[in-house]
Amino acid sequence: MFRITSLLLASALLLATATSALADKKPKAAKKAHADIVATEIAVAGPDFAAQGEYVGEIKGDDKPVKLGVQVIALGSGKFHAVGYMGGLPGDGWDEKSRVEADGQTKAGAVVFPHEKGTTGTIRLDDKDAGGILTIKESDGTTLGTLRHVCRTSPTLGEKPPAGAVVLFDGTSAEAFIDGRVKDGVLLEGSTSKQKFQSYKIHLEFMVPFMPAARGQGRGNSGYYSQGRYETQILDSFGLVSQNNDCAAIYGIAAPRINMCYPPLSWQTYDVDYTAAEYQDGKKVKNARLTVRHNGVEVQKDTEATHGTTAAPVKEGPEPGPVYLQNHGNPVRFRNIWLVEKK
């Protein structure tokens, strides 16, 4: 088993930037986002949007090269926060233990995360040839490694409904929803399915906006509610240590096992196996349960929803309930929503 010094690990988090070329040639994740949203966000955000995202590569270890993943979070006005993961990105090699963080800011054509021992990592904003590459160097200029910007996609993105599925939204109309609104082929937040259900398996795709200056619950907030009663939170929690109110949490009840958020303006997936609560003589005898896969990774396993979650529009009860997509005042978008009822 190889070992790596704290200096090498810390150095990987010292700088993350993106070139003006990346601002023109948007990352794959942005290309997959809807043109109207992306164009507006990038026009406002400028190079900050291109700098944020995920980076993967190798740095020199004591015995052999060490794989490292870094997530760079835009915080507005040229400020950033970087998080490093030994072994690779969350859900793709990370050991789920080590996590190193650093703050940085745009300076002289680069976003710099300075280290007390002088080690830096660099991707020049003003160098088109260096676009999308995070180069890590020691204070004497020795290169420790390079990490490339990557844009991951969920293995269930675009998954087609099987025979017998109830298709709630396929991009053509919102007629399956009360207050459903469609813009440029995507469903806007604040929709309630007309049909009601008991237990089922659901697939839905969502995209949170790029809101670098926002914080906490004000950053890309929405939610998917099973039966209108139990919220699986939707939020831009990219790079955070997830709590029970972050993305893929059963809101107020259980944090996800691992934070599988992709950067904002990426299409993400929820695949949820929902089992309705059981009632006898009007009294609940078994709690509802949810198994949630976020971007293909199981983050909730048969989690009990001990009570109806905050802001649920439907009270707990034995009756079937709708699929509810919360409007929390942020422009969260949805597509490809279908479910298969369980017997």
Summarize the structure.
The protein has helices at residues 6-11, 20-24, 28-32, 35-45, 47-51, and strands at 53-59, 66-76, 79-86, 100-107, 110-112, 120-122, 133-137, 143-150, 166-169, 177-178, 182-183, 186-188, 191-193, 200-207, 222-226, 230-234, 268-275, 278-280, 283-286, 288-294, 297-305, 324-325, 333-341. The chain is mainly β.
Which key phrases capture this entry?
disordered N terminus; eight-stranded antiparallel beta sheet; Lipocalin; 2 domains; Jelly Rolls; mainly beta; 343 residues; 23 strands
User: What is the third-level CATH name, the topology of the largest domain?
Assistant: Jelly Rolls
Strand content: 35-45%
The helix content, as a percent range, equals under 10%
Quickly count the domains. 2
Oligomer: single chain
